[in-house]
Amino acid sequence: MGKKKIFLPSLRAEDYEVICGQRINARGQYIGELRIRRTADGKVIYPFDGCKVPGPFETAEEARHATRQLAEELVRQDVANPE
């Protein structure tokens, strides 16, 4: 049996709650932090077990930029093919 398809109304990027930030690790490098939740059903899209974490980076701006790019890509993928 395959995965059960979820039928949601037409999703748009606006249908996601995205929280981006950064933190400093023990080595003084910046790591991106991200949380994405689909508001239509409350499903957390990111983070998930084994997910890629943006970083480390030398500056906070680099970490934020990479985190925003990852968020945009994950939302695009979920809009195209929600699980």
Chart the SSEs and their pairings.
Blueprint: E1 16-24, E2 30-38, E3 44-46, H1 60-80
Antiparallel strand pairs: 1-2, 2-3
InterPro entries: DUF6723
Keywords: Plasmid
Question: Your description of this structure?
Answer:
With 83 residues, the chain is an alpha+beta fold. The protein has one domain. The chain is 25% helix and 25% strand. The chain is built from one helix and three strands; from the N terminus they run βββα. It has one helix at residues 60-80; strands at 16-24, 30-38, 44-46. Strands 1-2-3 form a three-stranded antiparallel sheet, covered by helices on one side. β1 and β2 form a beta hairpin. The radius of gyration is 14 Å and the shape is elongated. It starts with 15 loop residues before the first strand and ends with a helix.
